[in-house]
Amino acid sequence: MKKWSIDEGKCPISYTLAAVGGRWKWLILYKLFQNKVLRYGEIKRNMPSITHKMLSQQLKELEATKLINRKEYYQIPPKVEYSLTEKGQTLIPILMLMSEWGANNKADECAKNNDDKLNC
C-alpha cells in the first residue's frame, strides 16, 4: 500500500494525512494525551494488537513530523520516554471530535446491526 506523501497534491489535507494517516498514529497520540509521558513498553501494553515493528515505525514517523518528543536516558537498562510536542497538542481538539463522532455513530451502528462483532 502506497503511503501518503507530504507533497502529494500540495494541499493541507494531503499534509495532514501524510503526518497522521494510518491505523495507529491517532491512537498513539491519544494514549500520550491521556498519560502525558509513556515509555515504549507502556504504549505497547495499551495497544496489544500492534506489532513491535509497527509501533517502532509509527513512533519514528510521529517524531519525524515533530508531533511527539522522544527523550532518551543513557542508563542501564536503557530508558526512552515519549510525550506530545506543542505541535502534537494542536491535534487534540480534532482527536476529541473524532472520539465524539465515533461514540455517536458506533451506538447507531450497534443498534442498526444488533451485532456483537462491533463490541457494542
TrEMBL record:
<dbReference type="InterPro" id="IPR002577">
    <property type="entry name" value="HTH_HxlR"/>
</dbReference>
<protein>
    <submittedName>
        <fullName>Transcriptional regulator, HxlR family</fullName>
    </submittedName>
</protein>
<feature type="domain" description="HTH hxlR-type">
    <location>
        <begin position="11"/>
        <end position="110"/>
    </location>
</feature>
<dbReference type="Pfam" id="PF01638">
    <property type="entry name" value="HxlR"/>
</dbReference>
<keyword id="KW-0804">Transcription</keyword>
<dbReference type="InterPro" id="IPR036388">
    <property type="entry name" value="WH-like_DNA-bd_sf"/>
</dbReference>
<keyword id="KW-0238">DNA-binding</keyword>
<dbReference type="GO" id="GO:0003677">
    <property type="term" value="F:DNA binding"/>
</dbReference>
<dbReference type="InterPro" id="IPR036390">
    <property type="entry name" value="WH_DNA-bd_sf"/>
</dbReference>
<keyword id="KW-0805">Transcription regulation</keyword>
